[in-house]
Amino acid sequence: MEEKSKKDLPIGVFDSGVGGLTVVREIMRQIPKERIVYFGDTARVPYGSKSKETVTRYSEQIVRFLETQQVKAIVIACNTASAYALEEIEKQVKIPMLGVVKPGAKTAAEVTVNGKIGVIATEGTIQSKIYGKYIEQLKKEAQVIGKACPLFVPLVEEGLLEDPVTDEIAQRYLSVLIDSGIDTLILGCTHYPLIRRTIQKVMGDQVRLVNPAYETALELKRLLDQQNLLQDEKPVLGTNQYQFFVSDGADKFQHFANTIFKYGVLAVKQINIEEY
Amino acid sequence: MEEKSKKDLPIGVFDSGVGGLTVVREIMRQIPKERIVYFGDTARVPYGSKSKETVTRYSEQIVRFLETQQVKAIVIACNTASAYALEEIEKQVKIPMLGVVKPGAKTAAEVTVNGKIGVIATEGTIQSKIYGKYIEQLKKEAQVIGKACPLFVPLVEEGLLEDPVTDEIAQRYLSVLIDSGIDTLILGCTHYPLIRRTIQKVMGDQVRLVNPAYETALELKRLLDQQNLLQDEKPVLGTNQYQFFVSDGADKFQHFANTIFKYGVLAVKQINIEEY
Fold first, then answer.
1. What mean pLDDT comes out for the span A76-91?
2. How much is the ipTM here?
3. Domain boundaries, chain A
4. Cα of A10 to nearest chain B Cα, Å
5. Could you count the other beta carbons within 10 Å of the beta carbon of residue A206?
6. DSSP A232
7. Architecture, CATH, for domain A3-99+214-275
8. Cβ atoms of residues B62 and B85 within 8 Å
9. Residue of B53, B54, B154 with shortest CB distance to A150
10. Domain A102-211 is of which CATH architecture?
């Protein structure tokens, strides 16, 4: 394929559901000329409580689907899938691939002063100890304290973004991190930036929050630029710059997406991901 | 197949995950001679927020799996799957089938005095309005008020069975039911009996709670008896009276199962349900 047309291809982004839209939002902001094909696995959400084997099988199916959409790069916009499946899938595909974990780990290692970094995420991501592995490669003396916060996703999905119940749950989950004296906290699940304010309030202003969604979009831009794959011109109107696919509940997804973006999500297509 | 050997076959029971074990527990209590094959769809849990089409497809796959286990009857031990898929699946199979909704609705229609019945359940079950449909067939003048409680399942799975946070969330969800003056409340999700005490406390002693798990085991016994399918003798030791299958996380499932049963769950097998 010629370079010109390769640049024109979309970026594939996937997540277990709607959470990855916070990553899409950052990509739209930082590289607004790019086309995006998003897949949310709403029929099998959540991934955070499922096993490595299952999350990897699901991720492989999704990558096969995205390949049918001729994407030029793939972003795993889900921490659990990045933690469990990225290394395996990187072996299988030839296009550039990026998870949300490595960019988040890199920034945390850079900004910490006292070397104590907290990670909040799903059970799966915490059990994988993946943030710790990456951070250790960059900053050997760093101390990483992980804490699974399984109620945060349901609380966000119930819309309790600023609520005494969310405050109370945040205080319980985060107290161990406050006690350990961390100065940096990675929001290791794509839903968590949506309750960023509550988390910051509980942790106190002296703790720096790292949002891997932001760092991932930055890293993606760098990667595409390196490989001469950055889109030069914004697609003309009518070319479907952003396409959304889900495995279940297209209407519900569209409704949620429209609360996240200023851009109006007009069409979401449902596919049977088990066929890939 | 001869009648004797037909009686010896197990009962198939399925759910989206662990919740259906509360139904299994009731079956074990009420018809302790029966063999049971349980399937929990832990790789795709939860069903409560997913569409009718998807829940029906998943249920059909599970029924095909249970048929390979030569079950003599099938119990859908999941309210959402009962609400969405039972009628469709009943057309496809020849063995007796039972959901948890109809037995719960029947009891509620019988015990209500003022004719005002509340239903708490997942979004899917509430949207299906299935409890209202069944209750209306039995008691035309009854008034059914449904309320989705999406945070109850995550709270139960996080172990917050008796906790101020669960109290607070219960008060918010249930206030509309208290205001409407119901005298009967159906626990329309298999997880909810595990926070029965909190629900009773919030609703007050004058409200009668109906647990469909209990009613379903009773109805199953009646149905098997009618068709001369009740097991006569308890299986001899070593015949695997209870078998458990899941689509993900066998160890985690086994751990949870052992908190629900006195009977020790020794082995849980994992299968790939997408292949059925």
1. 96
2. 0.90
3. 3-99+214-275, 102-211
4. 28
5. 8
6. -
7. 3-Layer(aba) Sandwich (3.40)
8. no
9. B154
10. 3-Layer(aba) Sandwich (3.40)
